Amino acid sequence: MNFQEIFPVWAKLNRTQQQRLLAGLSERRVERGAVLHNGQADCTGLFVVQSGQLRAYILSDEGREITLYRLFDRDICLFSASCIMRSIQFDIAIEAEKDTTLWVIPAETYRELMAESAPLSNFTNELMAGRFSDVMWLMEQVMWKSLDKRVAAFLLEESAIEGTSALHITHEAIANHLGTHREVITRMLRYFQSEGLVKLSRGVVTLLDEAKLRALQA
């Protein structure tokens, strides 16, 4: 896989713009748990994921996290270059959920190319609109869905991502994704276990009845 194959508007840039983009491009490999970007002050650059998995999250003043969205192979992380978007007024952190290889486009290079290229500017606006739709969807879930439904939906999503019903994940990690406390998640998972939906063991949540979990999340 090379950058030219996966960058969506590569063919719409002229040769000079393509050369400038490649000249500024760098490759980075990060281990699971590494924080790649931490708020507005850290304008790292645009991330293009080659392989691995990232999550974008916000952190409250009390230290509680909530996951906004996740990024997988070929996904582009715009908010890691939030300094190019003057309207962004909240801090977003980016963490590697798995060992990840990515390309980094310097923020200044991307800003200059956006000013020159209408296709790149339009693509960036569409990407930003899509991410804000993700955030609005999350807000609706938090405001209107009960926690049991959100936990069920998260477990099913995680199972689909990992391709297994045995999830190696801690209660604290689930709480961080959903923006709540570990103790609350522990109580909810114990309730799920009593209902035969999951089985709990140290560091593992095993889904036993996915059909009932799907019915619960609806």
Account of the 3D structure:
The chain is an alpha+beta fold and 218 residues long. It has two domains: 3-143, Jelly Rolls; 145-217, Orthogonal Bundle (Arc Repressor Mutant, subunit A), CATH 1.10.10. The chain has eight helices and eleven strands. It has helices at 3-6, 15-24, 107-116, 118-144, 147-162, 171-178, 182-194, 210-217; strands at residues 26-30, 35-38, 46-51, 54-59, 65-71, 76-77, 93-96, 100-105, 166-167, 198-201, 204-207. The strands form three sheets. A four-stranded antiparallel beta sheet has the order 1-8-3-6. A four-stranded antiparallel beta sheet has the order 2-7-4-5. A three-stranded antiparallel beta sheet has the order 9-11-10. Strand 4 and strand 5 form a beta hairpin. The longest helix is centred in the middle third of the chain and has 27 residues, at 118-144. The model has no long low-confidence stretch (mean pLDDT 90).
List keywords for this structure.
single chain, 218 residues, alpha+beta, Jelly Rolls, 2 domains, 8 helices
Brief rundown of the structure:
The chain is an alpha+beta fold and 218 residues long. It is 44% helix and 23% strand.
Distance between the termini: 38 Å
Query: Which segments are poorly predicted (pLDDT under 50) over 5 or more consecutive residues?
Result: none
Strand tally is: 11
Please identify, by name, the CATH architecture of the largest domain.
Sandwich
What do we call the CATH topology of the largest domain? Jelly Rolls
Q: Class of the largest domain, according to the CATH hierarchy? A: Mainly Beta
- Kindly provide the radius of gyration, computed on alpha-carbon positions and rounded to a whole number of angstroms: 19 Å
